[in-house]
Design goal:
Layout (H helix, E strand, L loop, with lengths): L8 H10 L1 H10 L1 H13 L6 H6 L1 H10 L9 H8 L9 H4 L3 H10 L1 E2 L2 E2 L6 H23 L1 H12 L6 H5 L2 H11 L10 H11 L8 H17 L2 H4 L3 H11 L24
Antiparallel strand pairs: 1-2
């Protein structure tokens, strides 16, 4: 990926957007990832059981990384049980896990006693998995260099799949971006989940998450506010410079205390 370390999130994100195709190509062609992609294509078609997948360390690691589950790689017993659970059974493990990453993995890699649900030898399916893997590395690389940039990349990847406000609240990246963009104080994250849901329902029309222009607006507001309060962005942000100038001139800057109980009085969708 193109280096963006030390840049403001706005500058870094603009650079990544301008060089995205190049960055994805660099990931695909790097020695580490090219080898992983080649091994996946060569071996996945031969997988006919859950044991075949779990016992092939390279394949297993590839599909876990493709679904952003690298932190769960060593939980093989859980993954095995989840991938062989029946999605039509409301009490099955896949339906009891609230993390959407597990459901995404199950949708692509589920097994029954007869074998995999998907046709692993299908070239189109394989290419989708490779694209998912490369995109995930791209997002992770962005986040490693700049947390705000990484969160925006996550937001872009997930927003269109939101079905209800609880999908937002259980995802730290979606909730952080939208709280900021909608003017919802971060302190509300400590409220009861149903109260948080009520606030989001008043402030957000879920249809906006299907609108590319609205998504860009949410993103721009989040990045601008994040840069205004970050070390990288503060030095070049006009609002922060003005506040700093006031302080040097003897003016006092006092933080505002927010009354969480008054949140319900805030106007719906304050950013239009």
């Amino acid at each position: 990926m193109i280096p963006i370390g030390g840049m403001s999130a706005g500058t870094g994100l603009s650079l990544l957007d301008a060089t995205k195709d190049k960055s994805l190509s660099l990931i695909r062609n790097s020695a580490q990832h090219e080898r992983a992609i080649t091994q996946f294509r060569e071996r996945i078609g031969d997988v006919s059981s859950i044991d075949d997948l779990m016992e092939d360390r390279d394949l297993y690691t590839f599909v876990m990384r493709a679904h952003d589950l690298e932190d769960q790689i060593f939980g093989k017993a859980l993954i095995r049980k989840m991938l062989t659970s029946d999605v039509s059974d409301r009490t099955s493990l896949v339906n009891r896990l609230t993390d959407s990453r597990f459901k995404d993995l199950h949708a692509e890699m589920a097994f029954t006693d007869a074998g995999p649900v998907q046709d692993f030898s299908d070239p189109a399916w394989q290419e989708e998995m490779v694209d998912r893997y490369v995109t995930r590395q791209y997002i992770n690389d962005g986040e490693a260099q700049n947390e705000t940039v990484g969160r925006v990349l996550e937001f872009r990847d997930k927003a269109a799949n939101v079905r209800n406000v609880f999908d937002i609240l259980k995802d730290k990246d979606l909730s952080k971006v939208l709280r900021t963009a909608l003017g919802i104080p971060e302190a509300t994250a400590g409220l009861d989940i149903d109260k948080q849901a009520e606030i989001f329902k008043r402030k957000l029309d879920l249809a906006d998450l299907k609108d590319p222009e609205k998504l860009k607006r949410f993103e721009r507001i989040y990045v601008a506010i994040s840069d205004a309060t970050s070390a990288q962005g503060a030095s070049s942000n006009p609002a922060v410079q003005m506040l700093s100038g006031m302080a040097r001139g003897g003016g006092a800057f006092a933080p505002m205390t927010l009354d969480i109980s008054a949140i319900s009085a805030l106007p719906r969708r304050p950013y239009g």
